[in-house]
Specification:
Largest sheet: 9 strands, antiparallel
Number of strands: 20
Shape: elongated
Radius of gyration: 29 Å
CATH topology of the largest domain: Beta-galactosidase, Chain A, domain 5
Helix content: 25-40%
Strand content: 25-35%
Length: 319
């Protein structure tokens, strides 16, 4: 009997100590889930282990908006697929809320901006902000899904970049840039990196709109911010400038490789390349390059390129 009491006196303190250490372990090593709302945008983030709700550092994220869901984690990263290099797998690192915009930052410093816009209808714009390591060509694989009360309708073969969605008897659409692929079996949106835009748009179809393509791409509403617009235009010009200068240009024949046809000389390309070279302060090298191309195709140059090539008087005197 005496031995039993001694055991009880030892066991109870040990049990209390174990409970206290267990609670401390859960407090400092456990993970918390943070929930935020930006208008109709709902954000659910898994915080870094040990952080409290004031932290913005995350290991996983879910973004929901009226039936559509985007999700990111170590198991479901944002992927940049590039044929020339190994794919980049980007994991979420932190989130930030600015006015009506939610931004998720990934492991390479790039961001995905989720922005709710107000106009004739409330829309969600998903806008990638590239990092320095992003390849020029390839695809961006964005994990996505639909909530239980939402289901995609039949795909339109004539408009593969736009998907109709039905949610509680209300019709929505999700549209993406040209050449985008909705891989429904993989729950991924495959967006080309070399397009003029990478923005994804999700909105309700209004009763006045009967043409989904016209509504998706021709509503005339605000689509992107000034900074993103400028970045997109600059990236497009850089891609074209490289193509005119070397990627698609054959200096031996003075021709450019063309899509779906044989290489040929184009005076319009010559003029556009020289004008952009002038703006960039690289005109001398470009002039020597295009002067040779013009000499190889003397019958295909005229008054359009004369101010750039310096033979305006000769051209105007020609019969």
């Amino acid at each position: 009997m005496h031995t039993r009491k001694i055991r009880r006196y030892f066991i109870l303190p040990i049990l209390y100590i174990a409970i206290i250490f267990g609670l401390l372990f859960l407090q400092f090593s456990g993970t918390l889930t943070v929930r935020r709302s930006v208008g109709d945008i709902r954000f659910v983030g898994t915080l870094v282990s040990g952080d409290d709700e004031t932290s913005t550092e995350i290991t996983a994220a879910r973004v929901l908006f009226r039936g559509v869901e985007f999700f990111f984690s170590e198991q479901d990263p944002l992927v940049l697929a590039n044929e020339e290099q190994r794919d980049l797998q980007l994991e979420p690192r932190r989130y930030e809320i600015i006015d009506s915009t939610l931004e998720i930052e990934f492991s390479d410093g790039s961001r995905l901006r989720f922005e709710q816009t107000e106009g004739e209808s409330t829309e969600l714009h998903v806008i990638p902000v590239p990092g320095e390591e992003w390849p020029v060509r390839g695809q961006m694989l964005i994990p996505y899904d639909f909530e239980q009360d939402t289901r995609p309708l039949s795909f339109d073969p004539g408009a593969p970049e736009t998907v109709r969605v039905l949610r509680d008897e209300t019709e929505f659409f999700i549209s993406a840039p040209p050449r985008t692929v909705f891989a429904t079996d993989q729950k991924r949106i495959l967006v080309p990196l070399d397009g003029t835009s990478r923005m994804i748009r999700y909105a309700e179809v209004s009763e006045e709109q009967t043409n989904i393509i016209e509504f998706a791409f021709g509503s005339g509403g605000r689509t992107v911010g000034d900074q993103y617009y400028r970045q997109t235009i600059d990236a497009y010009l850089d891609l074209g400038y490289r193509g005119w200068a070397r990627d698609r240009y054959n200096g031996g024949s003075g021709t450019w490789a063309m899509r779906d046809t044989s290489p040929r000389f184009e005076e319009e390309i010559l003029v556009a390349y020289l004008a952009e070279a002038w703006r960039r302060g690289e005109y001398t090298a470009a002039f020597n390059q295009m002067r040779r191309a013009a000499d190889l195709h003397p019958d295909e140059v005229g008054i359009l390129s004369a101010p750039f090539l310096g033979d305006l008087r000769i051209v105007t005197r020609s019969p």
